[in-house]
Amino acid sequence: MVTVSYHYVLAIREIFPMTKRVGKSKRVKIRQSAGILMYDNSRGNGDDLHVLIVHPGGPLFANKNEGYWSIPKGEFHPGEDAFDAAMREFEEETGLKPGRASEYLPLGMIIQKGGKVVYAWAVKGRWSEDRIVRSNTFKMEWPPSSGVWMDVPEVDRVDMAPVSRARILLKNSQVAFIDRLQVLLSAGNA
């Protein structure tokens, strides 16, 4: 099993500080989130490895599919570390309680197109196709400037997808997490 030391995390934070300088003196906080990539490699069919991905809820994403899915993830709360945020967000977005910390494979971090830093871990698990999505919700004004507020689920669909389909559905930058997971699994880390 691959482990990440505390010193590795500190080194990453020096390379990618949590704020960046914009212009001469203005500092901007870098957005960060963390998530869990649940996988199942025990199906025994031609496309053996499946990963759990989620589709964002709400009217903005209603007709968007390829390139809009994500691993279950979310932003940190103040004082929360990346792994704790990943565990909390996984449960909030899927309704599944994460397993023991020793069962997770670190997948490192990526930087999304908009500059957000995303940390991820992988864990083996199963998602029943008939399971009902139990995501948390947030308030959103829709249509914009209408004064009408609605509760919107953070996640409206969950799919335990074969990696071939997940690569098409996921945000481009997050496909790297699948690549890293496949390397770890082929090295016998699961």
Describe the protein in words:
The structure is a single chain. The protein has 190 residues and is an alpha+beta fold. The chain has one domain: Alpha-Beta Complex (Nucleoside Triphosphate Pyrophosphohydrolase). It has four helices and ten strands. The chain has helices spanning 6-15, 82-94, 163-169, 175-186, and strands spanning 19-22, 26-29, 32-40, 50-56, 73-75, 105-111, 117-124, 137-141, 149-153, 155-162. Strands 3, 4, 5, 6, 7 and 10 form a six-stranded mixed β-sheet that branches. A two-stranded antiparallel ribbon has the order 1-2. The protein has a two-stranded antiparallel sheet with strand order 8-9. Strand 1 (19-22) and strand 2 (26-29) form a beta hairpin. The radius of gyration is 17 Å and the shape is globular. The N and C termini lie close together (7 Å). The relative contact order is 0.22.
Q: What is the fold's blueprint, element by element?
A:
Elements: H1 6-15, E1 19-22, E2 26-29, E3 32-40, E4 50-56, E5 73-75, H2 82-94, E6 105-111, E7 117-124, E8 137-141, E9 149-153, E10 155-162, H3 163-169, H4 175-186
Parallel strand pairs: 3-7
Antiparallel strand pairs: 1-2, 3-4, 3-5, 4-10, 6-7, 8-9
